[in-house]
Fold these 4 entries.
Entry 1:
Amino acid sequence: MRKQILLKTIIAATVIACLALPAYAVMLVSRSQEVAIGKQVEESMIKEYGGLSKDQALNERIARVGKQVSSFSPRNDVTYTFKVVNSDEVNAFAAPGGPIVITKRLAGMLKTDGELAFVLAHETGHIAAQHGRKAINQALIAQNVAALLLRNSGDAARIGANVMYTLYTRGYSRDNEYEADNYGYQLMTKAGYNAEDGIKALAKLGMKRATGVNKYLSTHPDIPDRIDRIAKMGNISEDRKKTLIEQAQAEK
């Protein structure tokens, strides 16, 4: 038991330390392993969040918009799936290898398809950029050292699940989140949506960090910084940006 606890501690510390580093040249995590870990993580998330939503209209909307934005992803060796879970938390999360989960509350806050498109495209971006896969890979490399100390080589799926749990509770690095926002902008606009909806989606999440039910904000960079970046990418003026923020907050 002590060895398992120590191993989890080492993995968690390694993930936090390595997220800001460039990916290793050697990828130990195969695509099939990534997909298998992703399915395991998805199942855990669905269970934790009270099961899948039975709202057919909402499920169809999420699947439709998700398919639109993910069809423009530069990564096409995985199958992207989009599911809604019964939770009053405000959150969305991407598992390695394709699964994307959004809570019923967050989906309900995003009134237009364009707002939803940005959030789903952002999560798609994490998978396209292989953020989860790279973090697991880095932890597996570190596990080689841990195995020598603990005489226990472990299992890729178990380590991968532990890594994703760490990412879920602590969040990706700021650079990873900004890269996912870049994808969010690119994929939503390629799918025909207006970048202004990206600003409104972010503004509805709040203009500062939050905790409690708003899990999304507690694991993502500050909203004002993200809005400024989207506005620059979309050539949206300062006055228009302020108007969009006001509109979004009035609709909450």
Entry 2:
Amino acid sequence: MFNSKYEIEENYQVFPGHYLMAFKSLDIARTALPGQFLHIRCYQGTEPILRRPLSIHSINKEKNLVYILYRVCGRGTGLLSGMKAGEMLDVLGPLGNGFTMPKNDEKIVLMGGGIGAAPLFFLLEEIKTHFDKRIDKVSVFLGAANSDLIVGKEKINKMGFSGYYATDDGSSGFKGTVIDLFETIWTEGSPDRIYACGPSPMFRSLAEAADKNARIEVSVEEHMGCGLGVCLSCVCKVAGPGTSTENAHICVDGPVFDLRKIIF
């Protein structure tokens, strides 16, 4: 984990209300794992005082560039969207536990809903690097409200993965949810491993739709205070020994969890 200021290389709007930022950091680029997140101060001063947790979207290891893809949804991210290339960004991270890398003989599905799909692309980069000859076993399912909000379709095609897309209004691909699309496409057999990012209702539907033998890891979204497991603002319930339940800190025990262990 590092806490330092890094120079912003670029920060621009990629589609309405959504921005892509890149900053240069040798430390983070060389140590971060897919699924981990960064705790970012969104302003040069002290207001707003709390950092914002943002997932790592992509990493260019040759240039030591770290990318975050974020949606403007409040004052903090609004201020972040106004930062310019050349300014210094205060970053704490990488934080949390990431995804378990798949075995090269596994059939894999990655599934994302809206901006929640952002951290899947770092995982896709690592899968392509380590399992390039097996990418035919990888399928990517993305859903969004409309075609303008589907994340990274061009990148998925360029990387050579099979992409399937769903929109609520039917403006692109399948009309319906990404879970509906998954059930429509995956009618025979079962993936060995599923990675998912998105809102909690999507996870509940996925738990019902997926084969019970599939290994499912999900990246949980939650507001955070400290990002270090001290403030107790991002607690969720998980299954403990026997029939017991336990409190888990999303920031330090997650944000990636075994879906079967989360209690909604």
Entry 3:
Amino acid sequence: MIKAYAKSDIGRVREINQDSYYISDSLDEVQLYMLADGMGGYNGGEIASTLAIQTAKSYIENNFKQIEKDRDSILQLIGSSMEYANMVVYEKSKESKELEGMGTTLEICLIYNNKAFIGHIGDSRIYRIRKEFIRKLTQDHSYVQKLVKDGTITQEEATHHPQKNMLMKALGCNAFVEPDVMVKGFLKDDIIVMGSDGLTNMVSQDDIGKAAKKDIEKAPKELIELANKNGGYDNITVVVIKNI
């Protein structure tokens, strides 16, 4: 049995909320959880994040029945859904001057058979909490993360780097995209937290873990309040999923 709760907030600085999310009803055949953080002037980011989620969701739901339910087939389905969503957002961005250059991050988590099948592009994040430990499952597709990986700067320096928001990969900005796909165990009592960078830039990994472990239902609201208290410089979206 899967329980999930989510909440999104505009934050304290932005004039529009460009984040979007989707959570399955616990009775749905396909247990699907998604989060997207859009970017682009005018209202491009809002359109990009909503469109990416709608498109990937319908792609997965329309094709899930037909595929073999093995690891590779499910991962391929998630990857294909993101490639398709990328194409749709990219085509939309060419329709008008206002939407030019819009794009979005996209996190997909499909729960099946005590496993989390994950698709990731951008710098929104997915964490898994197991017993006392919280672990980040995704790698940010950001310029700063690349510098960390190359050993140019430390993880500590990355936290305050001026180019922190510069993405190396996003959905909808180019005709082709290569998302990360992975599968992780999602056992009884495990918790998954999905968050936009409005959460993860404002709240530490440990604090995210503490709030989610304490009460999954209240965690999204609590974490948003904490992010706002710490500055609230961006839209904040939190999805918390538990294998009960």
Entry 4:
Amino acid sequence: MSNETSFTVNDMPKAERPRERLQKFGAEALSVQELLALIIGRGVAGRSVMTIAQELMARFGNAGGISEATIEELSRVKGVGLAKAAQLKACFELGKRKELETEYGYEDYDIKNPQTVVKAIRARIKDMKKEHFVLIALNTRNRIIGNIINISVGTLNASLVHPREVFKEAITRAASSVVLAHNHPSGDPEPSEEDLKITRRLIEAGRILGIEVLDHIIVGKHTVKSAITEHSKPEKEGYCSLKEKGLI
């Protein structure tokens, strides 16, 4: 019998099993491997759930690495598959949304300046490996309506960020105005020509619909190193407001 089949959760003393430990001590007492095992639920033929959880940790490094992995990457681990990979992604997303809602209270958030927008969305998109384009729908008092809306994932272009998709969500929420935002995985928030082109297109579409585009924020890292010259600072903020720069 292989090592993978010789030890399962049922072989553990009952008091040491993840489910019983969580009930007795709370979720915070469990290791990441134990929490993963509880989410996955059970193993597969020839492979225990603890072994599967252990391989996830070995392959992706830590909880952060697992949370950033795609469903396809997670499903390549024997015993995970697409269904359990989706469960893992859903759990990490719930944790992220809970953190954001607790810290920022979106519906009561008053958008007054670019820094406020960055504070509201940075945790959501700054470390993504692909570009994530999001929409912030605002009421007449510049307060966020509901949650921040995901519009597209991938390198920004006119087909990914179409006015129809952007303003469909704004109209559904009866938004008075919107703020656009996306991340640059490179860490440098300077806008590309495509960023500017898409922004102008969306501003024009919003003007026709009567929904003002207040700004487009590009998020990079917290600070980005830049070349030091006589007229430059050694660091710049990890975001770019197209409105602040006079580009819209």
